[in-house]
Amino acid sequence: MFRALVLLILISGTPQFSTSGFVENNELTQVNNFQVVSSNFADEGKTLSAKSALAVDLDTQISLYKNSPTKKLPIASLVKLMTALIILEEHELNEIVTISSDINETIGSRMWLYGGENITVESLLKGMLIQSGNDAAYELAKFNAGSLEEFSKKMNRKALYLGLKNSNFLDPAGLDDENNYSTTEDLALIAKHILKNDFVRRIVSIRETSIFSVNGKIEHQLVNTNRLLDNSFGAKGLKTGTTDLAGQCLITLVEVNGNDILIIILGSKNRYKDTRTIFNYLQSAA
Fold first, then answer.
1. Could you read off the pLDDT of 59-113 as tens digits, one per residue?
2. Residues 109 and 225: beta-carbon distance below 8 Å
3. Active site residue 80
4. Which of 101, 189, 274, 279 supports an S-S bond with 115, CB 3.0-4.6 Å?
């Protein structure tokens, strides 16, 4: 039986995940295949630089570690998971999008689309989730809702439907705005839903690939922004995000003794180190 350290910052009170599909272990006892043996990283001399962090077991629906899980923070490109969730629910992968003529005005990370290019929804999703292309996010949003503003409204309606409690979305790519925010708890719910899609699970683990326009004349080389895909502990995705306001953000999907563990980091100075710290600590009692 797999035994991992369940880390809790708050030991008492009503379980915070019961209404959103996750269960928080608030007692120092064994729950399913997890056991609480420590309540704080300080016990082991470990610290995180992140403003908020959360680890959740997606198989057992147990919250393993939390630090300010309801703190509202900018999430940068992690918002693209919500963008992808809407697109996947409302479009077929083989639908064709004609890229806007003003695409070169896109700021931030890009997959380098060309105005007038015809490309599939599938390829745009890859460009958005693998290379974190803002241009792909904007083209998908406009294709779906007609404008970025209307798509943002859909994002917030979807957030309410999913039971997100502390999120507000103004931009499908995640550019900085004080009113564009979420929490590690809410992001866990988004990730939980989108990881039900096999296409997403497959592409977020891709390190490098090439995609083409419909006519095959334009090639886009994609390189994953997630450095943990090269790490020895075997990350399987999920999404990076970085802006001046948000700092370093990361959602990592990793397997621990057969269990899918989701580690979410917001407002970090070193997201990869913080993720490894949580991962190694969960491994230490296996």
1. 888 888 888 999 999 999 999 999 999 999 999 999 999 999 999 999 999 999 9
2. yes
3. yes
4. 101
- The one-letter code for the residue type at 191 is A
Interior angle at CA 44, CA 41 and CA 50, nearest 5: 30
Which of 66, 80, 154, 158 is labelled catalytic?
80
Residue 178: CA count within 13 A, CB half-sphere: 0
Token pair in block for residue 136? 């792909």
Report residue 65 as tokens. Answer: 């570690």
**Structural domains of the chain in order of their starting residue, each with its CATH number:** 78-162+184-220 (3.40.710.10)
Catalytic, out of 132, 167, 182, 268: 132
Residue 255 pLDDT grade (very low, low, confident, very high; cuts 50, 70, 90): confident
Classify residue 163 by burial, with Cβ atoms within 10 Å: 0-12, 13-18, 19+: exposed
| % residues pLDDT > 70 (the chain) | 83
97, 58 contact by CB (below 8 A):
no
**223, 231, 281: which is closest to 253 by C-alpha?**
231
- 132 flagged as catalytic: yes
Catalytic residue among 77, 100, 167, 268, which? 77
Two tokens, residue 17 = 């995940």
Residue 237 has pLDDT above 70, yes or no: yes
Task: Report the distance separating Cα 55 and Cα 188, nearest Å.
Answer: 9
Q: How far apart are CA 143 and CA 246, in angstroms?
A: 27
The secondary element (H helix, E strand) that includes residue 52 is: strand 52-57
pLDDT digits (tens, 9 = 90+) for 107-145: 999 999 999 999 999 999 999 999 999 999 999 999 999
